[in-house]
Amino acid sequence: MTTTSRVAWVGLGKLGLPMAARIVGAGHVVQGFDLSAQRMGLAEAVGIRAYADLASAIEGCTLVFVSIPDDKALLGLTLDSGDLIEKMAPGSVLIETSTVSIEASARVAAAANKRGVAYLRSPVSGNPVAAESGTLSAMVSGPRDALEQAIPVMQSFTKAQYWLGEDEQARFAKLAINLMIAVSAGMMGEALAMARKGNIGWDAMLELMADSAVGSPMVKYKALPLKERDFTSTFSAAQMAKDLDLILGCAHGAGVPVPLAAQMREAYASLIGTGYGEDDYIATVHHTERLSGLAALQSAPRG
User: Fold this and answer.
1) pTM for the whole structure
2) Structural domain tally of the chain?
3) Per-residue pLDDT tens digits for 231-240
4) Are 121 and 171 in contact, with CB atoms under 8 Å apart?
5) For 127-148, how does the pLDDT look when each residue is reduced to its tens digit (9 = 90+)?
6) Is 14 a catalytic residue?
7) Which of 146, 166, 186 is where one domain is finished?
8) Which residue among 145, 209, 210, 216 sits deepest, i.e. has the most Cβ atoms within 10 Å of its Cβ?
9) Of the residues 166, 200, 226, which one is the last residue of a structural domain?
10) 225, 231 in Cβ contact below 8 A?
11) Do the strands 63-66 and 136-141 form a parallel or antiparallel pair, or are they unpaired?
């Protein structure tokens, strides 16, 4: 047990709930809040103390974690109707784990600074499975002393915490990583379509990719569901499109040309437009197959 025994968690979605549950498992009291009654029920089932209002959920908590879907939700929660920052006690720490824009994050930082709240931008890399196993990676920027205060709790759901600077560095880092993931998904789609055209067995090509020089953790992780032609979403094509919009905005604002990001944004727009927006982001595979005139595989061919 650490000196921090009670924390708040706001936003109990696909990532937020398993992260908060890990904190409970580490022996801390977690006070939770979510707008969804269903998510609140799931939270109570894993030992989180669910509160019907935001102010009660954060009461007495020095550390307040947030996991929400986008800029609109972040600004609504922290600055607008939710008014989270004004409800937080001066001297407390706000740890925001989502993927949002530089501009929205900077607005929250200004409000937190005015209130006397330390603001840690702490987006995480990983999926719900990694959240459940406590193997997410956190990219963190903000006050270093606030991170030191939060690390004993963050270690329950992350394998590493990378402090990158005092300002918005973590936001840039998260968007840069997601750019690499999106482009990798496009690359896998094209490579697998080429392999099918060359009459290479589906399983054989996936195994080769995973064992090759480009066999990144992402490639290895996606090889298993791809063998089964399972496109059930861990992070959807629509979510990746949202992140690519953030990436394009960030890069253009910084004067960085990102033609690969623009190309992948169009690919995901095509997936969404043809009804596959809720498929996993690796649906670039079946998207490229269709563009290549390849018939959909109902099950993995052996060869």
Assistant:
1) 0.92
2) 2
3) 999 999 999 9
4) yes
5) 899 999 999 999 999 999 999 9
6) no
7) 166
8) 209
9) 166
10) yes
11) unpaired
